[in-house]
Each structure stands twice: as C-alpha cells, then as structure tokens.
Amino acid sequence: MIRAVLCFLALCCAVPAQATSLVIGFQNRDLDIDTGLVPDLDPIANDQLSLRTTLALDLGPQWTVIADAGWARSFLELTDATLTGMTDVRLRGLFRPTPEWAIGAGTILPLGLYELNSLEVTTTQWTWNPRSQFPINKFGEGWGWEATAARSFVLSPTTTLGFAAAYLSHAEVDLLQGGRGECQWSPEVGVSGALEVNLSRTSRVRFVGSYTFFGKDQLNGEDVVDQGNQINLGGQVNAPVGRMATVWGASVTFKGDNELYGASDSTAVIPQAPGTYVGAYGRLAWALGARMLLNVEGRMLHVSGSEYALGVNVTSWSAGPGLGLKLSPAVALNGRWMAVWGDGDDDLSFKGSDWLF
C-alpha cells in the first residue's frame, strides 16, 4: 500500500541514514473458517506460507536503494486451488539533497502471478480478505511507477515533525486467463504526516496519519470500481516498565465506499473493502541475559461498516509468545507463535495459528 511508503518517508528524513540491512521473514498462517453458509464444507481451511525480504542498501550519505520481494503458497479448501509463486518486486531509490529533504522514485517489476482462472481468482479473494490478515495478499499488480517526497522539521532536541506526498500509477496487465481480463488498477495519490517525541533515551511516542486518493480500476478498458478514499491514523508508545520493555499501539482506518459499475465481475472485489478498521497491539519483553529476549505479543482488529458479501465484518484476536536471540552486533534472530481466533457477521467464526521466524 502507498501509505507504507508515506509513513516511511515522513520519518526517514528525520533520522540519520541507516547502514545496509537485510531482513528475511518466514511466516505460516493457518486458519479454519466456519462460514455458517456451507455446512458440508465448514470449517474451510485457508492457509498461507510466505517468504518476504527487504534489502536497504546505502550508496553513500545521500543515496539509498530499497528492494522488497516475496514468495507465497496460498491454499483454499473451498476451491482446492493453491496459488504458488513470487510477488511483484518493488524497487525504490531515495535521495537526500539535505538532511531535511528526501526525494524518491520507484518501480514495480511484474514478477507475480497473472492469468488466473476462476478458481484461482476465488482463492485470491479469500487471501485478500482483511479478516484473515495474511502477510501477502497481492500477487500481481502489473508494471508500476511511484514518486515520493518528504520534508522533516526538527522542532526541538526531542521532537521531529515530518510530511510526505506520494504518487503511484499502474500499467495494464493480463490478470485473468484466456485474455478475458486486461486489468488496470487505479492510480493513488497520498499525503501523510508524522510526529515523533523522544521522552527519554528508552521512551518515545509516535503519531502518523495519511490520506489516500484512489482513481478507478478498469477491466478491458471499462471502469469497474471507483475506489473510496482512505484515511489512516495511528500512534505508538515505546516505554520501559521496570526491567520490562513495552510497545503499545493503536490505529484506525476509514475506507470510503467503493462504487461498482455495470462492467464489474469477480475481479471487482479485490480492492480493499470499505468500512472502519480499528486495530490495537501490545508487546511485553524481558531480557534473559545480554543476548536473549523473551516477549509476549497480542493483536486485535475490528472491521465494521463493510457491505461486501465476503464476511469482511469481523473481530479478530491473536496472542502468543516469542523469543529473540542476538548472535552478533549485526545478526539477530526472532521467532514467535500466536493463536488466532475471531468471529463476524452471519455466524462466521475462525481459529488457527500463526508462526513467524
């Protein structure tokens, strides 16, 4: 999503350039979903195994290149279809002409999954569904181009304010099998702001907000969805409690109604569903020596106000333990397991597990 770029850029020019880094994540999320509508099949298995990687490469004090890529295997028992393959690759270049300014440009390389059949489209829709919170919910968006700019203001030795703007555009792409689906996803324009206050050496507060304008998705040259605009607000507090480190956060997203046109078919429900998304999370961590950290994490997501017929309105919970190990000043390993459960409209319920390494 474009808001991830916005929030990053709103803060990145407020801090010194970071060293080259590589982050690799393996995640497996298994869900059993009781729809209340298909007694012969309920609960329906829906799972995803994914690999994600982000490389940030410093080319000097002013230039940074960032690459994001992923791979996933998503299965839906309802269709007995498995989607396996790479995601599109995102490349971004960031230039800092001064310590206060950051200017970026990027592209999306279409290496993801395309030309899907009807069963695979249904599997994609279940993978995309916000209730399931799969880490990879888009496989192919087509060629894309983005431009970004950000400006920071040091208000005091402990307080920094940042603003950013971004534009994202897509080319036409063959999404459906047999040449039936020349899709062009809508352009996006976003603005964002962020405020960070360092309360002490170990405590800080951060607030972020963004507004994203969407255009119209097209199928075979005809408008199918005019996406509602989106507001995102969030905050995070990092603070120690005795010998325990804690992180607390909350967010709310307001997504306007998507207007569907007469040419709409099953691809029209892939854009994010309208409604209100309220999230919260907390993490408690205890040091078990100089190199090991034990933590407990919990998350909640409540979705309401969506009129989509895919069981989007839900309340989802997840909680579980984790362990971190620092092998050297440059290498760290982290793992965590969480139980997942939730319920929603029309007697929908689900449960499962999620592990991340």
Any key phrases for this structure?
2 helices
Gist?
With about 350 residues, the protein is mainly beta. The protein is about 5% helix and about 60% strand.
Describe this structure in words.
There is one protein chain. The chain is mainly beta. The protein has helices at 2-12, 118-128; strands at 21-34, 44-58, 63-76, 81-86, 89-95, 101-109, 144-156, 159-170, 173-176, 181-184, 188-198, 204-214, 216-219, 222-226, 230-241, 244-255, 259-260, 275-287, 292-304, 314-328, 331-344, 349-356. The strands form 2 sheets. It has a 16-stranded antiparallel β-barrel. Strands 9-10-13-14-17 form a 5-stranded antiparallel β-sheet, with no helix packed on it. The longest helix has 11 residues, at 2-12. The two termini are 23 Å apart.
Report the C-alpha radius of gyration, rounded. Answer: 21 Å
Order of helices and strands: HEEEEEEHEEEEEEEEEEEEEEEE
Protein structure class: mainly beta
Nearest-integer average pLDDT: 88
How are the strands of the biggest sheet laid out side by side?
A: 1-2-3-5-6-7-8-11-12-15-16-18-19-20-21-22
Oligomer status? single chain
The share of residues in extended strands comes to over 45%
Tell me the overall shape.
Answer: globular
Give the biggest beta sheet: 16 strands, antiparallel, barrel
By DSSP, the count of extended strands is 22
What fraction, in percent, of the residue positions are helical?
A: under 10%
How far from one another are the termini? Answer: 23 Å
